[in-house]
Amino acid sequence: MVNLLTAWWSDEEGATAIEYALIAGIISIVIVASVVIIAGALTGTYGDVSDGLA
Prior knowledge:
Oligomer: single chain
Order of helices and strands: HH
Helix content: over 70%
Distance between the termini: 80 Å
Radius of gyration: 24 Å
């Protein structure tokens, strides 16, 4: 039983999965923030073009 608990405690496969999940989460947050920033800039640009055509 002690050997089983020792093996379970030293197993790092779950830690790797959690690290990959955290990296994927951070990347997705960066992508969403970038899209929000770019959308704001494009809205202003399209507004300027619309005003210029009117």
